[in-house]
Amino acid sequence: MFKKYLCLMAALVLVSACGTSSEDQGTAGSSGASAYDGAAGMDAQRLGTARPGSQDDLVVNVGDRVFFGFDRYDLSAEARATLDRQAAWLNKYPSVNVTVEGHTDERGTREYNLALGERRATAARNYLVAAGVDGGRLRTVSYGKEVPAVPGSNEAAWAQNRRAVSVIVE
Question: Which contacts (CB < 8 Å, 24+ apart) does range 43-47 have?
Fold first, then answer.
């Protein structure tokens, strides 16, 4: 228990040490950077530029993730708008393949969250296919609660972790 507490405190110290410029504050919503972006994605986000057809381009100019309500996998109007932009972007770059990752917050059993994450990823994938994206270019995977975007055990963190993220397959 002490080790878990120590790790949490270390994570909080690291997060609180990170500065946020006024440019970055508007990017945390549906177009927020994914965990896969690395330093290059963050630089592209700050500069507002990205290589066309890249993960950075998807994140910065379209939005790579959609969010879900608690214990839900239906798509909100905002999620559908983001997926419409993703579909247009994917149709613009027909050689790009994507994995749609399903994620949940930390509540619930591992098995339940893996199933819910799969339903979220499938809902996003099915919407993209209905919007004209070739289904052969899209695959799904569920990480359940195993890969949180935001650490924490509060509603703000949970809301950011209930998501489906589109990641380009290189």
Answer: 46/21
Other beta carbons within 10 angstroms of residue 164's beta carbon come to: 29
CA dist 99 and 3 (Å) reads 34
Query: What are the pLDDT digits (tens) for 37-52?
Result: 444 444 444 556 789 9
* 66-81 confidence digits (pLDDT tens): 999 999 999 999 999 9
Q: How far is CA 95 from CA 98, 110, 156, 164, in A?
A: 10, 34, 36, 21
Q: Fill in the amino acid letter for 59.
A: V
Q: How many CB atoms lie within 10 A of CB 42?
A: 15
Nearest to 167 by CA among 88, 59, 89: 59
